[in-house]
Amino acid sequence: MTDVNSLLKRFNSRGNEGPSINKKRRLDDALNQYSKGGTTPPSLPPVVRDDLQDEPQDQVTPAVGDDVGNDDEGGRFYGGGLSAKQREVLDFVDKYEDDVTDEVYDAGWVSKRLAKLDKVVKKNTQLRARYPDQPEKFMESETELDGCIKSLSLVTEYPQLYLPFAELHGVTILANLLSHDNTDIVVDTIQLIEELTDSDVAIELDDLKKFMSTFVDEGILGVLIENLGRLSSSTSEGDTEHAGIFQILNVLENFTVFDECSDIMFIRTTGSNQGDTGLLPWILRRILVKEKPVSQNKQYAAELLSIVLQKSHISRGQFCRQTYTTPDMGDLTGVDALLRILSSYRLYDPPAEEDNETELFENVFDSLSVVVQDARGRDKLLENEGIDLLLLILTSGGKNGKTRAMKVLDYALASGSCSALAVDLVSNGGLKVVFKHLSSSRYKEDKYFTAGAVHSNTKHITLDAILGVLASLFRNLPEDSSQKIKLMARFVEKKFEKVDLLLNFRKLTMGQVERSAIAIKAERDEFLKSKPDDMDELDNWNDEVQAREAEWYIQKFENGGTRLQLIDVILAWLAAEDEDDGLGVKERLIRGLESQNQSLADIKETLVSYRQEIQIENTTGESEEETTQREEATQLAEMLDVLIDFL
Question: Per-residue DSSP letters for 185-206?
C-alpha cells in the first residue's frame, strides 16, 4: 500500500489553496479585470541573466516612448525589457490599485474559515472511509485540509478573533483533528494550537484564560498527551514526529501559565476521566533514556517537569506519591528517577559545549529542589539515599553540581519537621563536608553593594546556602543527641575558629546592610519629591509608590538582610546550647561581639525584626498547601520566640 505521508508531501509540493499573506493578489485581480475587457494579457518577458553576456539573447522591442539612449548599460533598467502590451498591463494595475480593498477580519471571516475547514474535514473523512486502501483517492482532499489548517494561523494576528473562534466551535474541530490518521495533519493542528495558546499574543490575559479554558473543557490536554505516545521519539531534529513532540511540550508549557492547568497536568481530580493523565510516566521514561548528545525533546521534557512541579502543589504530591514501572529500571518514584539521573554527574558537570545536556542537568536539580520542600519528597529523598548522593557531589562533583547540591540540602532541611534528614546528614559525614566549604568561603562584595558573593576555591557555592544548612541543623537535630554534640564540637575545635569566622562574616554583612539602607533611603527620598499636585495623577503615583516599596523590601534582603538573619540565628543557637555545657563558645562569642562594639542585644534585635516579618493567619477553607505553609510559619515563629526569650 502506498505510504500516506509520502503522498501528502508530494501533493504539498504543488502548493495549497490557502490565502497568501497580503490577501490582495493585486496583479492577478488586475489581469482578470483586463481580460474581461476582451484582451488577453501578454505573457511575461524572458529573464535576462547578467552572467550570460556572451550568449545570444532575444531581442526585445522597447516600449513606445522609452528613451533607450538614456538607459545605463543598454537600457536594462529604464524601460527596456517590457513590450508595449506589458507596459499597458502595469499601467492598468497602477490605475486601479487603490480600488483593491483589504479583507475584513471579524467574526464573519472566522465563521467562513471554520465552515470551509469543517466541510473539507467531512469530505476527507468520507473519502478515507470509501477508499481506505487507495491513498491517492483522498490525498488531494488531505492537501486541501492541510492548507485550511495553516490558513487559520492568521487568527493569532487579530486578538478580536479569539473568542469568536472558540464560540464558533473552532476548538472542537481542532480537538477532532488531533485524532486524524495522518500524523502530518496532526502535527499541523498541534502547531496551530501552539500559536493560538502562546502567551505572547496581543490579547488580554483574562480573554486568553477564557479562550484556553475552552481547550481544557474540550479535553485537548488529554488528547495532546495521548499523541506523545503516538508520535515517535526520534532524535532527528528535522523529523516531523520529533517536531510534533516538541510542539506538544510547548503547548503544555503554554497552559502552565494558569495554575488551574498546572494542577491537572499529572492527575485529573474531577470530571469523568479521573486519574493519572499519563504525562508524568511519559516524562520520566523520556528523561531516563540515555542519549549522547542529549536531544532537544529530552531537555524540554525535563524543563516542563520543573515548571509544573514549581507551580502546582497537587502535581508535586502526585510526583512524590506515585510509583511507576519503567522498562529498564522497574518500579520507581519521581524522586528516585531524578536521583538516578543526577548520579551520572556525581563526579563531573556536563560538558560546557553541550547546551541541551547542561539545561537537562539544571532542570533536574531544580525539580529536586522543589519536591524536597514537600514532606513526601523529603521522605523519598531519605528512602532513596539522596543525602549520600548530594554529599558525594559536594565532595567530588563539578562546580555547578556542588552549587546545586548545597542548595538542595538547604531546601530539604529548611522545614522544622525534618529531624530524620538532619540526623542522616550528620551520621553520613555531612558535617565535615559542610564545614569544609564554610572554612574555604571568603566574603567579598562588589562596589555597588549588591548581594555579597563568595570568592574562593568554592566560590561557586553561595554562603547563604551553607549558612542555611547550619541553621537548620541546629533547629532539627534532637536535643542532647550525639549528632547535636558533634555539631557543637565543630565550633569549639581549633580555638573557636568557626565562631570567629561567623563573627567576621557578620561584621562584613552589617556594613553591606547599612550601605544598602542608605542607598534605598536616598532613592526613596528622591522619588517622594515627585509627588504630583494633580489629583488625577495621584492614584497612579500612589500605585507606583507601593510597587517601589515592594522592590526596596526585596532589595534589603538581597543586599545582606537574609544573610544577617541566618548568621544571627546560628550565633543565638550557639549561645543557647552552651548555656549549660560551659564549652566556652558563648564567652568567645560575647568577646568577639564586644570587639565590634556589638552585643547579644544586637543579635536579639535582628531576631525580633525577623519574628515581626512572620505573619500567621488562620483562614477557613484553606488548601493543603496553605495549611502546610501556615504550620511551617508557626514552627519558625516558635523557634524565634524561644531564642529571643533566651537572649
Answer: HHHHHHHHHHHHT-TTSSS-HH
